[in-house]
Amino acid sequence: MALHWAVFQLPAHLVDYVIAHELAHIKIAGHGPDYWTLLRRAIPDCEARKEELDDLGRRLWLGQTAAAGDG
């Protein structure tokens, strides 16, 4: 399993969610009902964490900077 380095900017409870999410994919491909049942066993509030990650993830720094001469 590989994780993008930007994941480690997240709060610990969201890092846990991302890791559990990826580990669940070892057993179940896709995001169907069986996948969410499995993930919920590890992270009971996974839906709330997914929503938080979706919101926060849009604001993570991914290493992009302004081009030389911009700003």
UniProtKB/TrEMBL annotation:
Superkingdom assignment: Bacteria
Entry coiled-coil feature ranges: none
Gene3D superfamilies tied to this protein: Metalloproteases ('zincins'), catalytic domain
Xref: CDD domains: M48_yhfN_like
Domain YgjP-like metallopeptidase: 2-54
InterPro entries in the record: UTP_pyrophosphatase-like (IPR053136), YgjP-like_metallopeptidase (IPR002725)
Listed name of the protein: YgjP-like metallopeptidase domain-containing protein
Species whose genome carries this gene: Streptomyces dysideae
